[in-house]
Amino acid sequence: xxxxxxxxxxxxxxxxxxxxxxxxxxxxxxxxxKILPLLVALAAGALIGDTFLHLLPHAVADAGGSFSxxxxxxxxxxxxxxxxxxxxxxxxxxxxxxxxxxxxxxxxIGYMNLIGDMFHNLIDGMLIAATWLHTPELGIATxxxxxxxxxxxxxxxxxxxxxxxxxxxxAIAFNLLSxxxxxxxxxxxxxxxxxxxxxxxxVPVAAGGFLYIACADLVPEIRKRARGMKLVTTFLALAxxxxxxxxxxxxxxxxxxSHSHGGHSHDGGHGHSHD
Length: 275
Description:
Elements: H1 5-17, H2 21-26, H3 30-34, H4 36-62, H5 69-89, H6 108-134, H7 136-164, H8 168-179, H9 181-191, H10 198-225, H11 229-261
């Protein structure tokens, strides 16, 4: 079994289970809905922090200390790729109002949403696995960032399924099934570990994708919802997300420093030969 397989599977399963959070939030009453803007801001901060404190620095280190054209193309690929996913497959916005669907079965938009969400979760699983194979610090940070942005996203997904005519139980079941696509994505990366170099190539792609989600998707939601004093709490939530990634970074650096004094090499930590 490849190194860190257990951590990867536990991380992706945990992220997959977040697919039921949409139902919990939706039926949890007004208080649960009121904290949704703060969750969006927290997720945006975590994604931005993960990008600039973990993903891009690791990508530059992999390229020998330079911001190489490969990194540039990877980041652009992530930006364009996630734009495609959101624009073509995800026909919804976070926090979308929920209306009951009329009689006559399920609207096709429900199934289109599930297909798009499944593909998105597949990519998330691949990114989580690739970063875990790179370094534990990167894996932990990316797992947290993905989990935080999944919470408001799944709220929107669940609302779309109800709007399309799914019953609450079917919506939860299909959302959970879609979430498990993250495990499939992780298994793809595990199966090809060291053969395709995905654990290195997907790091800048993740940076571009996370920037797109934070700046094109979550930040507009923050600006739309934050007014007056809410702007202060929203900013604090965003700062908390960045601070959380800084804490993971500081913890990872301290852990790496103690390992270097113990005679362990940080570069071969994921079991690849560099001959």
